[in-house]
Design brief:
Elements (H helix, E strand, L loop, with lengths): L8 H16 L6 H8 L3 H7 L3 H22 L10 H14 L2 H12 L8 H15 L5 H21 L5 H15 L3
Helix pairs in contact: 1-2, 1-4, 2-3, 4-6, 4-7, 5-9, 7-8, 8-9
Length: 183
């Protein structure tokens, strides 16, 4: 029997892994559950991802891209005339306007790095990448502080089940930006 060429299979497997984690948590993730969700043979998941950690790395990398892309694509962040705190608040508000389950999934994968060392470099990619983008407008230490605050606010909203408070976020972001002398 000829092997079927399926160039999108790897991406479908990653998408299936994200759905499995969203529905069942990381403990519900296995090659078998992902294969069933992706409607591919079990061997396909192990061919593309030798371990669950490899699969989780790919899934986290895909999730990382969401907020980082929004930050990158915001042309206003590169404009020195744009208030940095206002723009970050707008971006965070847009993120929370989206589907909450998707944000929870991203943070579940992000925090899985606490117990899965293979995920730590990928979690760091997000903070480093967003920090580099913000460092265009301020110094690297302030950019790291802004990323930490964005993370902290996001975790508080998710863990308390509360709503995103744009006024509070904007004020705290502005304090950090003002302390650096950037705008």
């Amino acid at each position: 029997m000829a092997r079927r060429y399926d160039p999108g299979r790897r991406d479908r497997i990653i998408g299936a892994a994200l759905r499995v984690v969203a529905d069942r948590g990381i403990d519900g993730l296995s090659h078998r559950t992902v294969a069933a969700e992706a409607d591919v043979p079990l061997g396909s998941t192990t061919y593309h991802f030798a371990s669950l950690d490899e699969l989780l790395v790919a899934a986290l990398r895909r999730c990382n891209e969401n907020f980082a892309r929004a930050v990158r694509e915001s042309g206003r962040l590169d404009d020195p005339g744009t208030d940095l705190a206002d723009e970050l608040t707008r971006l965070l508000g847009e993120w929370f306007t989206g589907e909450r389950q998707a944000i929870e999934l991203e943070y579940e994968l992000y925090l899985a790095a606490l117990r899965r060392p293979a995920l730590r470099p990928v979690a760091a990619e997000w903070t480093d990448g967003v920090g580099e983008l913000l460092a265009r407008r301020t110094d690297p230490a302030t950019a790291r502080a802004l990323v930490a605050l964005l993370d902290g606010i996001s975790l508080q909203v998710l863990l308390t089940g509360g709503e995103f408070d744009a006024t509070y976020a904007r004020e705290m972001l502005a304090r950090i930006v003002r302390g650096s002398g950037a705008r």
